[in-house]
TrEMBL record:
Family: Belongs to the LipB family.
Gene name per UniProt: lipB
One Gene Ontology term, aspect cellular component: cytoplasm
Reactions performed catalytically: octanoyl-[ACP] + L-lysyl-[protein] = N(6)-octanoyl-L-lysyl-[protein] + holo-[ACP] + H(+)
PANTHER family found in the cross-reference section: LIPOYLTRANSFERASE 2, MITOCHONDRIAL-RELATED, OCTANOYLTRANSFERASE
One Gene Ontology term from the biological process aspect of the record: protein lipoylation
Gene3D superfamilies: Bira Bifunctional Protein, Domain 2
E.C. number: 2.3.1.181
The protein's enzyme class: transferase
Protein name, per record: Octanoyltransferase
Further details from the record: In the reaction, the free carboxyl group of octanoic acid is attached via an amide linkage to the epsilon-amino group of a specific lysine residue of lipoyl domains of lipoate-dependent enzymes.
Binding site for substrate: R83, G84, G85, E86, V87, T88, Y89, H90, A150, I151, G152, G163, F164, A165
CDD domains: LipB
């Protein structure tokens, strides 16, 4: 059993609260941040929260069998990236979080880190009276059997990249063209299905605050 308690002492974390950003631009930025922290591990941690235009991403070992469309004729970009996991979909209305953390300052344990990310998402859902659930053997967060948050990470020399995606109020049609995360028997959902008037900008703020609380961080540039 992994604890969800936050580590000590409090570390500084640069917070970037962004709007819509092209996936490749964000991906390159992450890789730059990770590389600089490999060379200078004393640098502050980073949390980026943003949205992407429609895009599909596949993990390093993801199977093309989970795509229901022809890659050659797809109007939506598809990228194979260095995270774990199968295919997923990003689009406006979905909040994507990219933590760049040096786990040596926390706990160098991937399972612990994944459970911490789930804890952040579950606590945010709790603010809306929604009961977020884990499913044994799977990664992510579900509400009433619908997967509302996906997690896919890459850790190199204990420095993290990629992260989580929370479906706040996206158009879910893009998920119908894939088998999301390779899970065929559990539907994808969004918070808007349970709370129609949910405000994504408020969720964005609550997500950052909760992330800082769970990981024991002091956010810089937070407003």
């Amino acid at each position: 059993m992994f604890s969800d308690t936050k580590p000590h002492p409090t570390r500084l974390c640069e917070f970037y609260n962004l709007g819509l950003m092209d996936y490749i631009q964000a991906w390159n930025w992450q890789r730059s941040l990770v590389e600089s922290r490999r060379s200078h591990p004393e640098l502050n941690d980073v949390l980026i929260v943003l949205e992407h235009p429609p895009v599909y991403t596949l993990g390093t070992g993801a199977s093309l069998d989970f795509l229901k469309f022809d890659l050659e004729t797809s109007e939506v970009p598809v990228h194979r990236i260095e995270r774990g996991g199968e295919v997923t979909y990003h689009c406006p209305g979905q909040l994507v979080g990219y933590p760049i953390l040096n786990l040596r300052h926390y706990r160098p344990d991937l399972h612990w880190y994944l459970r911490q990310l789930e804890a952040v998402l579950i606590q945010v859902l709790g603010l809306y009276g929604l009961e977020g659930c884990r499913i044994p053997g799977m990664t992510g967060v579900w509400v009433e059997g619908r997967k509302v948050a996906a997690i896919g990470i890459k850790v190199s020399r204990w420095i993290t990249m990629h992260g989580f995606a929370l479906n706040v109020c996206p158009d879910l049609q893009g998920f119908q063209k894939i088998v999301p995360c390779g899970i065929a028997d559990r539907p994808v959902g969004s918070l808007a299905e349970f709370i129609p008037d949910i405000q994504i900008d408020l969720v964005r703020q609550q997500l950052a605050i909760t992330f800082a609380e769970v990981f024991g961080l002091q956010l810089m540039n937070f407003s």
